């Protein structure tokens, strides 16, 4: 049975493992870091997310979704405090990570909005990703935003009301990314 719930501290290792498996072939992650750094990147993303949801499939974590409330701009102090985590995660690719975040920041909608930072299902084709997105959006009527790193996933997000706003070609020969916005619903 599939149940979506807020993650607990005890879920952390399985949540990281689910994201690591789900994003093993992700073009942006492969451009950003070598595979041996994947778990560090996902651990850092989880540490910085405002809300972490997991899909519990018969007692095992089958997927993870990270939501970040963007009502207000993050304080410079909070961003500075997160820098050691990102240095640990990205290592010598920290400059590339900075260019990635700059490219993404220009595409974000005006505040306030809910940012779907990451959704990944360790088991594909079972509706886990959709269940996670549905759960995160069900009580939220404001603007929501995400970046899709795979063109084939655009249709999934469109079912939830997201629309592509542009295509970003990442620097240094990086892959394309599609920012998507779901307008506020009255």
Automatic annotation (TrEMBL):
Supply the PROSITE patterns for this chain: GNAT
What domain of life?
Answer: Bacteria
Q: Which GO terms describe its molecular function?
A: acyltransferase activity, transferring groups other than amino-acyl groups
Domain N-acetyltransferase, by residue range, is: 2-185
List the protein's name: N-acetyltransferase domain-containing protein
């Amino acid at each position: 049975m599939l149940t979506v719930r807020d993650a607990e501290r005890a879920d952390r290792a399985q949540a990281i493992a689910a994201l690591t498996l789900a994003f093993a072939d992700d073009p942006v992650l492969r451009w950003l870091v070598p595979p041996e750094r994947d778990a560090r990147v996902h651990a850092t993303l989880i540490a910085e997310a405002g809300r972490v949801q997991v899909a519990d499939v018969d007692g095992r974590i089958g997927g993870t979704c990270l939501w970040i409330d963007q009502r207000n701009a993050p304080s410079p102090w909070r961003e500075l405090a997160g820098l050691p985590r990102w240095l640990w995660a990205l290592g010598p690719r920290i400059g590339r990570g900075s260019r990635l975040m700059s490219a993404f920041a220009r595409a974000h909608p005006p505040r306030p909005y809910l940012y779907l930072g990451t959704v990944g299902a360790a088991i594909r084709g079972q509706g886990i990703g959709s269940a996670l997105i549905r759960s995160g959006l069900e009580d939220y009527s404001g603007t929501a935003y995400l970046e899709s790193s795979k063109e084939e996933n655009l249709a999934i997000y469109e079912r939830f009301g997201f629309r592509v706003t542009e295509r970003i070609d990442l620097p240094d020969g990086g892959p394309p990314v599609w920012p998507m916005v779901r307008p506020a619903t009255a």
